[in-house]
Specification:
By secondary structure, the protein is mainly alpha-helical. It has one domain. It contains five helices and no strands. The chain is globular and about 45 Å long.
Length: about 120
């Protein structure tokens, strides 16, 4: 019985220890917003590549403009993405938010006739 109590205590402590989130990562809502914009860039670039194979230089300039507009660095975005790759359950939640954001844009485009 004593062994069981010790194991239970160790299990509770192990479950209650929370990994600290690195301070230099983007806030989750900002990361989600930037990831959504990145998905739109990818969709646009992939669409352009189907039409015109001469879009090789557009990738980096589109991302550079997006990072600047969002007020984040590529390094901060990459570090944050890597953090969430190591935490797949959280990344899955973020991608759910991204998909919801994309759906809102589609719904708005359907109602106004233009994609925002």
């Amino acid at each position: 019985m004593r062994t069981f109590a010790i194991l239970l205590l160790v299990f509770q402590v192990a479950c209650s220890v929370r990994e600290e989130r690195p301070a230099d990562l983007l806030p989750r809502d900002k990361f989600t917003e930037v990831l959504l914009e990145a998905q739109l860039i990818e969709a646009g670039l992939n669409d352009g590549k189907v039409i015109d194979a001469n879009t090789a230089g557009e990738d980096s300039s589109a991302y550079a403009a997006m990072f600047k507009a969002q007020g984040v660095t590529e390094q901060a975005f990459s570090a944050t993405f890597e953090h969430y790759v190591d935490h797949p359950a959280e990344l899955k939640e973020i991608y759910s938010d991204v998909l919801a954001g994309l759906q809102k844009r589609v719904d708005l485009a359907d109602s106004t006739g233009t994609l925002h």
